[in-house]
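Input record, target 12 of the design panel.
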């Protein structure tokens, strides 16, 4: 009986196991069916999405595009299509401070016409981070940008405003706080970079109406803005005048027609790295409120601008390394005791009113000057280069054996390293911007045609060196690729001739625009001048429609894929910034300028 009960129990257990296996199998099949259905439904949704995108997606969506990319690009394309002006200025890159135009977006991917300069040819144009300025055909200065009008980024702004007029200005240089203007007669004027600081004090004599140097009261040419003239400390020779100016962040160089080099301290940081070439100078004492426009009646304050590396050699050292007897830097150590007690205000345009000749360059004939942000360079008439100032990135070009962060006296830059003994090297021109320096040199060994090479040094963190490498410190000048050693057949001489860089514009933020003179040897019917761009490209400043730095010089192309070439022609008419016709039949040419994360190609009046 027990055996029967046991068999019955086993039979029930077997039946339960079979039933469990059936239920488990059904559950598995049900789960598998659910997964299959889920996969099929997901695939259907993806297919439907792809079908909808194929039917409705008309453009590529970039991961860095703003929300209104469609509207912005349509507006730019429409402006390009409708622009029918004979002379058109093209702009691209960052426009957050509205230094390119107020109606354009904050980021401009490709070269786009600017309505401000339709049929306008300029004498000069300069861009800074927060403000910009230009000289129109009549020699008047116009300023604009959020930094000039005092607007917050993204707020209301205005068109270029006339500031300095009637001075026959030919050249401009901008700093964070100043605008320097060189006239055709060799005079140097300075204005504030902010409109609010250009207001004339109530009841004060205007610079043009002051009987010491103007007759504005007689001809009805009263000035509306405050400006000052900078004069040399030493009297110039008869017939000598200033012909070049170049400004860094806090200092300026000026060159006379006799080859003499002068320096001007813009702020108290003018000699922070020895870029002035001297320490001792003098400035006017703080102005008397009753006579703010007559600085020559004020007493002078001696100023001793000591470079930081000398005033405090342990400035970058930790407290554990700093010797016990050393004192941290203070204002007196940098500018002198008397100047610190005088309470000088270097934000005023009359902080310094003189130009001082660089002592080490007296008797050295110079024909070219250039300034980086905190460095200075001069080229002698026989093709040698002297540099001084900040050198932490190797921007002076003195080689790897010189590791000083500041070069306080003019020092020769050797440009013939690693060349054969028979090779003759001569510097043709020098260019600088920010912490990047470029030398245009001519090399010849007597066996063939001389070649032209571009040598670069300094901070190439974003590819600005042009040697296909990203290096944030390059102290030995290296050869830039694709723009050095180029030749073309000349229709005039019937032989091979070197292609010479026409101009090089270096942005303080790390991108470069180089213009190759491919027109010189082209013969009748030849094209224009090629524009080569490289370096930083985070704000589309290279004009290729992409973001991403380019370490190798690359020919700029139009949106249609053709070479972007600068032209020269005779314009039917040229207008000034007011829109009035200045002259007809004027010879003009296009000029490329690299600004702060942006670029401009404008029409320049040929001199």
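The sequence produced for target 12 reads:
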């Amino acid at each position: 009986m027990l055996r029967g009960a046991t068999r019955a129990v086993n039979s029930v257990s077997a039946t339960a196991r079979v039933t469990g296996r059936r239920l488990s199998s059904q559950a598995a099949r049900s789960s598998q069916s659910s997964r299959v259905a889920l996969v099929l439904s997901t695939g259907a949704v993806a297919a439907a999405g792809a079908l909808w995108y194929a039917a409705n997606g008309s453009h590529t969506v970039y991961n860095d595009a703003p929300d209104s990319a469609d509207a912005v690009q349509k507006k730019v394309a429409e402006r390009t299509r409708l622009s029918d002006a004979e002379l058109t200025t093209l702009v691209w890159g960052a426009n957050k401070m509205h230094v390119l135009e107020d109606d354009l977006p904050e980021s401009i991917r490709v070269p786009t016409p600017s309505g401000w300069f339709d049929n306008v040819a300029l004498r000069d144009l300069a861009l800074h981070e927060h403000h910009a300025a230009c000289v129109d055909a009549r020699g008047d200065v116009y300023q604009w940008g959020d930094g000039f009008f005092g607007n917050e980024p993204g707020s209301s702004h205005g068109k270029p405003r006339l500031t300095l007029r009637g001075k026959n200005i030919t050249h401009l240089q901008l700093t964070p706080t100043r605008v320097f203007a060189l006239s055709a007669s060799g005079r140097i004027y300075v204005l504030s970079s902010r409109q609010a600081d250009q207001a004339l004090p109530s009841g004060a004599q205007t610079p043009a109406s002051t009987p010491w140097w103007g007759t504005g009261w007689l001809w009805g040419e009263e000035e509306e803005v405050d400006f000052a003239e900078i004069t040399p400390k030493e009297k110039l020779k008869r017939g000598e005048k200033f012909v070049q100016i170049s400004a860094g962040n806090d200092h300026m160089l000026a060159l006379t027609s006799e080859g003499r080099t002068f320096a001007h301290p813009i702020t108290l940081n003018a000699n922070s790295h020895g870029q002035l070439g001297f320490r001792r100078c003098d400035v006017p004492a703080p102005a008397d409120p009753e006579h703010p426009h007559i600085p020559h009646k004020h007493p002078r304050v001696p100023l001793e601008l000591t470079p930081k590396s000398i005033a405090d050699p342990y400035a970058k050292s930790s407290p554990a390394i700093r010797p016990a007897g050393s004192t941290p830097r203070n204002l007196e150590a940098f500018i002198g005791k008397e100047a610190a007690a005088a309470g000088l205000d270097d934000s005023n345009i009359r902080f310094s009113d003189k130009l001082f000749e660089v002592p080490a360059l007296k008797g050295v004939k110079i024909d070219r000057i250039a300034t980086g942000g905190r460095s200075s360079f001069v080229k002698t008439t026989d093709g040698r280069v002297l540099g001084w100032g900040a050198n932490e990135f190797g921007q002076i070009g003195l080689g790897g054996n010189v590791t000083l962060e500041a070069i306080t006296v003019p020092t020769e830059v050797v440009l013939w390293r690693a060349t054969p003994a028979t090779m003759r090297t001569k510097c043709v021109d020098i260019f600088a911007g920010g912490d990047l320096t470029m030398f245009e040199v001519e090399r010849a060994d007597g066996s063939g045609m001389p070649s032209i090479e571009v040598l670069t040094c300094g901070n190439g963190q974003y590819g600005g060196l042009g040697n296909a490498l990203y290096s944030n410190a390059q102290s030995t000048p290296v050869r830039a690729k694709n723009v050095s050693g180029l030749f073309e057949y000349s229709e005039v001489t019937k032989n091979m001739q070197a292609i010479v860089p026409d101009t090089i514009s270096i942005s303080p933020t790390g991108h470069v625009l180089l213009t190759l003179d491919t027109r010189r040897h082209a013969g009748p019917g030849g094209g224009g001048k090629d524009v080569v761009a490289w370096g930083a490209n985070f704000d589309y400043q290279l004009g290729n429609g992409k973001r991403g730095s380019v370490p190798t010089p690359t020919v700029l192309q139009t949106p249609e894929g053709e070479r972007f070439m600068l032209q020269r022609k005779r314009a039917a008419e040229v207008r000034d910034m007011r829109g009035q016709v200045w002259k007809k039949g004027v010879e003009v040419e296009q000029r490329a300028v690299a600004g702060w994360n942006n670029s401009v190609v404008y029409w320049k009046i040929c001199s």
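Residues 460 and 471 are 5 Å apart (CA to CA).
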